[in-house]
Amino acid sequence: MRVLVCEDQALVRAGFVTILSAQPDMEVVGEAADGRAAVRAVEELRPDVVVMDIRMPRLDGIEATRRLAGPEADDPVKILVVTTFNVDEYVYEALRAGASGFMLKDASPPELVNAVRTVARGESLLAPVVTRALIGRFAEHLRPSRALAAPERERLKVLTPREYEVLLLISEGMSNAEIATELVIGHETVKTYVSRVLTKLGLRDRVQAVVLAYRAGVAGNGDRL
């Protein structure tokens, strides 16, 4: 798989490149030190996955992600956002911009490699611990007004009660295994429910499901429709 690394700190960028280049199934086809350079590089190199920092000069990772993977992108590319969460208050916006997932910069090399592979397969990567931290720190800030949430809540009415319950648990950052334990159902059954939720709501992955739950004002509060 072809990977582009976008990170403004040279030492961190070099570390990512070294780790990913050592994998037999990966090729780092380019590097970028800011968002503008990343957009140009993607247009020229067409990587399978972009490892994207958020805080960068000239054009930040959120806007670069929106241009490369957002609703108006002609040919969206998969974005893995890597961030220092404890100083970064823009993770939610990165997800809304179209990122397929994010992980922390203090993750281990194997975790980084696995994250790139996961995103390359078209699956979302949203670590439960990060989701919970996101909810805990920014829930009130992110919760929309009743008027803004109403159209999104209307979308959720296509879900059955059990599917809606699964959506709420996804929005709390639970993994499939944790959802299975919470609902006392099998792991494969959870996968089926998650797939139905995404299909019915027209969502690409569970990252988008978390975003929709926030926009509908139901994330983290257990509201019933």
Automatic annotation (TrEMBL):
Keyword Transcription regulation annotated: yes
Domain HTH luxR-type positions: 152-217
Keyword terms of this UniProt record: DNA-binding, Phosphoprotein, Transcription, Transcription regulation
SUPFAM superfamilies (UniProt xref): C-terminal effector domain of the bipartite response regulators, CheY-like
A Pfam entry, by short name: GerE
Top-level taxonomic group: Bacteria
Gene Ontology molecular function terms on file: DNA binding
PROSITE patterns in the cross-refs: HTH_LUXR_1, HTH_LUXR_2, RESPONSE_REGULATORY
BP GO annotations: phosphorelay signal transduction system; regulation of DNA-templated transcription
Domain annotation Response regulatory: ranges: 2-120
Entries under InterPro entries matching the protein: CheY-like_superfamily, NreC/VraR/RcsB-like_REC, Sig_transdc_resp-reg_C-effctor, Sig_transdc_resp-reg_receiver, Tscrpt_reg_LuxR_C, WalR-like
Keyword DNA-binding applies: yes
Chain positions with 4-aspartylphosphate modification: 53
Protein name: DNA-binding response regulator
